Amino acid sequence: MKFFYSLHITTRYIIYACVFQLSALVTHFLFQQFFSEKMSLLYTCLVMLPLTALFIHFQIEPFLSLLRALNGTVSSYKDGDYSFGLYWPRNDELSELVAAHNDLGAVLREQRLNLAQRELLLDNMVQHTPVAMLLVCDNGPIVYGNVAACKLLNNGQKLEGYDFSSILKNANQALIDAVNRGADGLFHVQDDEAQEEDVYYLARRLFTLNGRSHELFLLRQLTNELRRQDVKTWKKVIRVISHELNNSLAPIASLANSGIELVRREQLERLPVILETIAERSHHLESFIQGYASFAKLPSPRLAPVSWSYLINVLQGQIHFDLVGDLPEKPVRIDSAQMQQAMLNLVKNAHEAGGEQNAVAVSVRQIQDSFRIDVMDRGTGMSEAVMMNALIPFYSTKRSGTGLGLALAREIIEAHDGRILLANRDGGGLVVSLILPV
């Protein structure tokens, strides 16, 4: 089809050339009747040249118009307007360029429409999320605030354009303190009307946008979630305590009835065994209750410098373990009694992990601005599911376990502004790492 169109164009231009040649000859012949040879050639050129220029102009104008249209649509594409297209009636090589250009515009329009729909969906999600989101530029003007942020900080009014510090002046003091701390964390807000306390979590992230520093603040209310978790935790506590009480009180009641019956029959020779068993179960129950009480009433740590050699020697006097490597010379600021309790629980767990008793080891290292204590064993380790729940209070895989050993250690370490990590060892076993600030 294109071949026949090109042949048609070529034939048309040949005819044009012939017509121009014939017109030039006729004009020259006519001028020869009135003028000399030279003058007739001159007049012929004066007549034919404007006609030729005018003809060329009419032939080239569509191409020039197409180029101008191309330039205009490309400029529109730069401005983000993809609604323009081109029309070229001829079926030549330029028609392929026009078709490709129109296809590009259609693709860009489709992408722009999809992008606009995604932006609209994202904006609706961000605006109506219960998490308050606030974007601040260079610690100054607020660039963005969603509905939750407007309700929390500005009585539902828009926040964009306001200075963050001026908005913060009217906020709750607990929020001001949380922002001034400069780190993520929980804070509590007292609701005087409802006479209850709301818990919020503040997260903040710094990033660069368009060459300027921005900070994103996320405020999430955790009160309802924490209440649900509290209910679940208390239910679990009640189940554990009920199970343990039943396991101890049922045998005690049975043995007491047996003792009464033996006294009635005056068969006193078995009575000491029964009383000894009752005393043993009572002592176990007392230890169980004391363990829960110590976890619930853990006081704030009283920090004081303690040498590592003193701490390790005290622990080795209570339970066996091997010390790996040298101890740091710099003392650590801890509550000695609480730290001994935490490490004693961990070493006991290591001995009960199922490995060799002489494979339990402890190492202490200083890594930059923190101390790292590793309690290691060669037991069976932990599965992924157990490791995810091992630090939760009252969680235990042992039939007689209370689930308080690791939980109590975690409470003590976090009260010292530290953290606890669990990991399986190469070759089998578990390593429990305590990270404490220097």
From TrEMBL:
Enzyme Commission number(s) from the entry: 2.7.13.3
Name of a matching Pfam family: HATPase_c
Membrane spanning stretches: 13-31, 40-60
Catalytic activity: ATP + protein L-histidine = ADP + protein N-phospho-L-histidine
All copies of domain Histidine kinase, residue ranges: 240-438
Species in which this protein is naturally found: Sapientia aquatica
Keywords: ATP-binding, Membrane, Nucleotide-binding, Transmembrane, Transmembrane helix
Keyword ATP-binding: yes
The protein, known as: histidine kinase
PROSITE patterns registered for this protein in UniProt: HIS_KIN
Domain of life of the organism encoding this protein: Bacteria
A single GO molecular function term of this UniProt record: phosphorelay sensor kinase activity
